[in-house]
Predict the structure.
Amino acid sequence: MPQFIFSHTGYVALALVVGIAIGYMVWKWRRKGAFEERNQERREEIERRKTRILAYMSTRQEVAHRDIQELLSVSDATVIRYLDELEHEGKITQQGTTGRGTVYVVK
């Protein structure tokens, strides 16, 4: 029985030390601006993809989200998010509400 208590206490102590070490590394990383830098890079990549979508759409009358998915090689959810952002920005219009018949056109 005492060995079980010791091993349990040992695991708790180990978890505490690991948690403190990880917390310190994250804190130090944030201080260096790594999160902000990564977020900026991600925002720039999203804008590049949205620009690519608009260029692709300018050569066609209408585009389905599957066309964009093949163009960018990203998930269906990511394409829908990009198209929603472009629609919210007033750059494209959605025609249709849901399903396969939904297409997008440049304004």
About this structure: The mean pLDDT is 86.
